[in-house]
Design brief:
The chain is of the alpha+beta class. The chain is 28% helix and 25% strand. Strand 25 (423-424) and strand 26 (430-431) form a beta hairpin. Residues 1-5 and 10-28 have low confidence and may be disordered. Residues 796-815 are annotated as: Disordered.
């Protein structure tokens, strides 16, 4: 059967269209092919009995378990922690262990720690320092002085097994190895104990993840205590001991277990902690216990300790102590907070279900929190659980807490530290800015969200920060926009554009301590990527199903990036290797340019029609300026002056149709099969518009092409071209778009809603648009010569005393 090949005539290049339109497709040269769709399994760990190819825990998946029994005492005056702990370690691995590794996070503050000795000086130095001094902030000086004045890091003693025999220990920076007296075989347990102590750091001085804050005006402190006890490092199937030192950016990966913790503090302190309070009758008044019960079913938060009570408590101070007893089951860490300044409110989150029907959402904050905390903290805690549970699993713990203190934002099981406060004004009121309100809502949602990721879905934060920060930032953006979509949550594709075209990038899959800019890399970029994956590539139904499957598969377990990547593909049914490779393993960016749009029309094969069209196209071309001016001057051509000297070609042009061509056309028609004739006749009758669009991938990151087509009649249409269009040539592609005869295009826009993080939206428009910008008028100042010190004159200046300064400020003449 003969194959028909119809031609499309372009309005812009009628005769040489095939070579012009196809030019970009032949620039590929031998050996230069790059497969952006190469399967990612080549780079991922091989599936095994511990982790399946589907991204699920394998049939022999295991993880260790550690239970802690801790007694700890807070010395408020000395800002010191002393404690003892008994640890039960269960070896669920198939390996025999001769030693255990523990994390000593407080050792990061020792002057000889790796973190401290590798700090770099960031101020610019001139070649002649005397001309322009380098800069050292008062904050840096304060930090140096605090570290010089205080002995920091752990003091550890009495490390013994359950028979009372001493265990040999070796401290390596922020880690400690305990050599076991007998090897710990698979399936067996070992118990050991130790004493520990350390001086609590002043958080404002060191910028730590925990510490104390001192209030000069009332002499009190808020203590946020985390990373406070020697904790077992994780032992995993993919890395064995995860014994990377704590350098500051990389957080932790820990083992799940049960905690029994007794916390002794000044008797007038209020304590918030991981777990459930086990001795409320001993540390709370009957009124406080009644209020807690009332809060379980209240529509709005109920104060357990109200503002007046907290303010009165601030004035007291005592040498007596109370011991608060908390128990927590199946958590991977434990943190707590203590202060006599705390107000305390609570509200029951009636979650329902079988896991944890009632969760007590609670907030602890000083008077400095003001109405900002009273109105929003606990409500934001409840909102977070409501949203996160929809996309993952029911909140499994009895409490979810938000505590105000010096730490801007940090998370632990059941408890979070959050920083924003109100400002005391001269009239005695406390106010807060819109930015501070947004900050509080954002940080509470983010930190409480971390109780899900990674406190339950237990990813390795020190190795892959994005697995907790990125996934959580994506979800806090979902929760945040369900609270108030007008607040900029920082997870939109447009929020990552400047970083993606910067020169300080590293791939997302970079160990956290080596990341150059942690915020954009570990938070914003992965969050924006998941936003694009959900809204643009997979759609909400497929994405939400796959993401929830991941969360439920790895609840109380330890996933790796491969497990996340594989689960999202396996559960969605979509090959996403190109997406993971581009977004997570490279520093490519999105920059898709729409270079040209050709408007073409289907040739009829009828020479009388087609040649007439070509004559019209030729007539539409601009006339030569030379010819136009000759005509304007009234000049006649030689032929016009000698009309008798003409021939056939003066009456017929190159578009004149001959019978030979008509015969050829008739022969062509007769040679068509019935279906071919019918197809041709329909196409000619419909006379549709054919547009060839040329795209360039300037950023290297392959992405779907989102098109907005605008027609002459003012209507618009959205078109979605999957990323697979780039699979044979990721640099340049062409796409044929066909529209109805009465729907001619007037313009085309790529990614009109800025949904793909395209770094240059100005090459997304065809025709190109005029770029809007601004210009500011300014007055040019005369350059000032450098003024030298006139010491002879300046020495005459009278020294202002505070008394004289106050008189001047009040408009009085100094006495």
């Amino acid at each position: 059967m003969k194959k028909i090949g119809l031609t499309l005539s372009a309005f812009v290049l009628p005769l040489a269209i095939s070579s012009a339109v196809m030019a970009s497709s032949v620039e590929q040269t031998k050996g230069s092919f790059v497969d952006k769709f190469r399967q990612l399994d080549e780079a991922l760990p091989t599936p095994n009995v511990y982790r399946s190819a589907a991204g699920e825990p394998g049939e022999k998946y295991w993880q260790q378990r550690v239970n802690y029994d801790i007694d700890v005492k807070l010395d408020e005056k000395k800002h010191r922690i002393t404690g003892s702990q008994s640890i039960e370690y269960k070896n669920n691995s198939p390996h025999t262990l001769k030693y255990l590794w523990l994390q000593l996070d407080q050792n990061i503050f020792k002057s000889d720690s790796i973190a401290e000795t590798t700090k770099t000086f960031k101020s610019t130095l001139e070649s002649l320092p005397a001309q322009k001094p380098a800069k050292l902030s008062l904050g840096d000086l304060r930090r140096q002085q605090f570290m010089s004045d205080n002995e920091l890091g752990y003091t550890i003693s009495g490390v013994k097994d359950d028979d009372g025999k001493e265990l040999r220990v070796t401290v390596v920076d922020t880690l400690m190895r305990i050599d076991l007296n007998e090897p710990l075989k698979p399936g067996k347990e070992v118990e050991f104990s130790m004493n520990f102590a350390f001086n609590i750091v002043e958080e404002d001085a060191l910028g730590a993840r925990s510490g104390y804050e001192h209030f000069e005006e009332d002499g009190n402190d808020i203590f946020l205590i985390a990373q406070w006890f020697p904790r077992l490092a994780a032992y995993t199937d993919y890395e064995a001991w995860t014994n990377k030192p704590f350098l500051g950016s990389g957080e932790f990966t820990l083992e799940f277990g049960d905690y029994d913790v007794e916390i002794t503090v000044p008797a007038d302190h209020i304590v918030s902690a991981t777990g459930k309070l086990d001795n409320a009758s001993k540390v709370l008044t009957s009124t406080q216990r009644k209020r807690l019960k009332q809060a379980e079913t209240s529509k709005r938060p109920v104060f357990i300790v109200n503002a007046e009570e907290a303010l009165e408590n601030e004035k007291e101070g005592t040498d007596k102590t109370k011991t608060w007893h908390f128990k927590a089951q199946n958590v991977r860490d434990f943190a707590w907070a203590s202060s006599r300044k705390f107000m305390w409110d609570a509200k029951g989150y009636q979650q329902g279900g079988d896991v944890q029907p009632l969760v007590m959402a609670m907030s602890f904050f000083p008077k400095e929190g003001g109405d900002l905390w009273k109105k929003y903290s606990t409500e934001a805690v409840v909102h977070t659980m409501e949203v996160y549970s929809k996309y993952s699993f029911d909140y499994p713990y009895p409490t979810a807490q938000s505590v105000n203190g010096p730490v801007g934002g940090m998370e632990y099981p059941m408890i979070t530290f959050n920083g924003p406060r109100t400002k005391l004004q001269d009239d005695g009121t406390r106010t807060y800015s819109q930015a501070e309100k947004r900050f509080l809502l954002g940080v509470v949602i983010h930190e409480v969200g971390h109780i899900y990721f990674p406190m339950i879905v237990n990813s390795d934060e020190r190795q892959w920060t994005w697995m907790d920060e990125g996934l959580n930032s994506f979800l806090d953006g979902v929760a945040g926009r369900e609270w108030d979509p007008t607040i900029p949550w920082g997870v939109e594709p447009r929020d990552i554009v400047s970083y993606m075209k910067s020169e300080v990038q590293v791939p997302i899959m970079t160990q956290s301590d080596s990341v150059l800019r942690l915020g954009p890399n570990a938070y914003t970029k992965p969050a924006a990527a998941l936003n694009i994956l959900r809204e643009v590539i997979l759609g909400r139904d497929l994405f939400d199903f796959a993401f929830k499957e991941y969360a439920q598969r790895w609840k109380y377990k330890r996933p790796t990036p491969a497990d996340f990547f594989r689960t999202m593909e396996e559960a969605s049914g979509v090959d996403l290797d190109w997406f993971w490779r581009g977004w997570f393993y490279t520093t490519d960016h999105v920059d898709i340019s729409l270079d040209k749009v050709y408007q073409l029309r289907l040739d009829t094969k009828n020479p009388d029609i087609d040649y007439s069209r070509l004559r019209d196209i030729e007539a539409d071309k601009p006339t030569s300026l030379f010819v136009e001016r000759n005509r304007a001057e009234g000049k006649k051509t030689w032929v016009e002056q000698n009309p008798d000297v003409t021939d056939f070609y003066d009456e017929n042009d190159r578009f004149t149709v001959t019978n030979k061509e008509r015969n050829s056309y008739n022969k062509f028609l007769k040679g068509l099969e019935p279906w071919e004739r019918k197809t041709l006749e329909r196409a000619l009758e419909e006379d549709k518009n054919y547009y060839v669009m040329e795209f360039s991938n300037l950023g290297g990151l392959v992405m779907p092409i989102l098109l907005e087509l605008t027609y002459e009649d003012g209507t618009t249409e959205e078109r979605y071209i999957p990323a697979e269009i780039w699979r044979r040539n990721y640099k340049n592609v062409q796409k044929l778009i066909v529209t109805d005869k009465n729907k001619p295009l007037v313009s085309v826009t790529v990614d009109p809603g800025w949904e793909t993080a395209d770094v240059d939206v100005e090459n997304n428009n065809y025709p190109r648009r005029i770029i809007p910008s601004r210009i500011e008028v300014f007055k040019k100042e005369k350059s000032k010569a450098k003024v030298s010190r006139d010491i002879m004159q300046d020495i005459k200046t009278e020294l202002k005393t505070d008394e004289k300064k106050d008189e001047k400020d009040n408009g009085e003449e100094p006495q």
